[in-house]
């Protein structure tokens, strides 16, 4: 039996992880947060003072380390060598460094292989930047989620405030724009809409509307 895969790509704050998790839950599929994998490697490197400009050192870290993703009620618990780093991977420092770490081809190839293996074993929803274009070019359903940068920054800002943290809307917007530009302009597997992806502009859609729209698309493609 071959697995059924849903690919969700798009820029930061488009709602990918929130919606991918909900869609996976409704379908009884595995949710694979590919961004968490690049974030975990970035966090592991920062914690060990490994130079993030040194691709070879990062590859060694990736090969020798043990990165695990475990589904949890809030999304995904992320472990590096058995240590729970779920919170650490969302820090500002990781936000500012992850696009550099994820620009290296050898690192992407390693991650892609892991992601393809997971997706081949189980029905799964994967979210990221290159799922529909590179990781799973034959995914059963491909979605490109977007929203205006103002709306995406506002969502991240609200998220921070709801956690009781201080937040600077303009700084978040700058960070998102910078990360989107780096992710879109890297040479290998950039952030890009697949030609055969369905585009959903979620600027004026709430989470449940987006989830329902994706479930409808899945239904259309599963007959
Ligand atoms: O949640 P957010 O959109 O802010 O980011 P994420 O999905 O956790 O991804 C963090 C970073 O990982 C992105 O900005 C990309 O640099 C990288 N990434 C990637 O290159 N390819 C993927 N498939 C997923 C993430
Ligand atoms: O994974 P990605 O960076 O694409 O976005 P996310 O982390 O899923 O969503 C960023 C924030 O926007 C979360 O706090 C979501 O609850 C919120 N959101 C929203 O308000 N409306 C949507 N249609 C989608 C997400």
Automatic annotation (TrEMBL):
The keyword ATP-binding applies. Its main location: cytoplasm. It comes from the Bacteria. It is found in: Cytoplasm. It holds the Pfam family Cytidylate_kin. The keyword Nucleotide-binding applies. It catalyses: CMP + ATP = CDP + ADP; dCMP + ATP = dCDP + ADP. Keywords: ATP-binding, Cytoplasm, Kinase, Nucleotide-binding, Transferase. ATP binds at residues 10-18. InterPro entries: Cytidylate_kin, Cytidylate_kinase_dom, P-loop_NTPase. It is an enzyme of class 2 (transferase). Residues 6-219 form the Cytidylate kinase domain. Its EC number is 2.7.4.25. GO terms for molecular function: kinase activity. Belongs to the cytidylate kinase family. Type 1 subfamily. HAMAP family: Cytidyl_kinase_type1. This is Cytidylate kinase. The lineage of its organism: Bacteria, Bacillati, Bacillota, Bacilli, Bacillales. The gene is cmk.
């Amino acid at each position: 039996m071959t697995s059924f895969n849903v690919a969700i790509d798009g820029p930061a704050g488009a709602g990918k992880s929130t919606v991918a998790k909900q869609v996976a839950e409704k379908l009884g599929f595995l949710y694979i947060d590919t961004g968490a994998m690049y974030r975990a490697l970035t966090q592991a490197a920062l914690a060990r003072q490994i130079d993030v400009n040194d691709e070879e050192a990062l590859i060694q870290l990736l090969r020798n380390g043990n990165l695990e993703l475990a589904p949890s009620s809030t999304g995904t618990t992320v472990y590096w060598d058995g240590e729970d780093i779920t919170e650490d991977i969302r820090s500002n420092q990781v936000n500012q460094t992850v696009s550099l770490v994820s620009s290296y081809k050898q690192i992407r190839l390693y991650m892609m292989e892991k992601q393809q293996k997971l997706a081949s074993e189980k029905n799964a929803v994967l979210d990221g930047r290159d799922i529909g274009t590179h990781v799973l070019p034959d995914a059963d359903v491909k979605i490109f989620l977007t929203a205006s940068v103002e709306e995406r920054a506002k969502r991240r800002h609200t998220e921070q405030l709801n956690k009781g943290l201080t937040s600077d809307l303009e700084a978040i917007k700058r960070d998102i724009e910078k990360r989107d530009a780096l992710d879109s302009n890297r040479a290998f597997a950039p952030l890009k809409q697949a030609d055969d992806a369905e585009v959903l502009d979620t600027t004026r859609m709430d989470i449940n509307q987006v989830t329902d729209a994706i479930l409808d698309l899945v239904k259309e493609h599963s007959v």
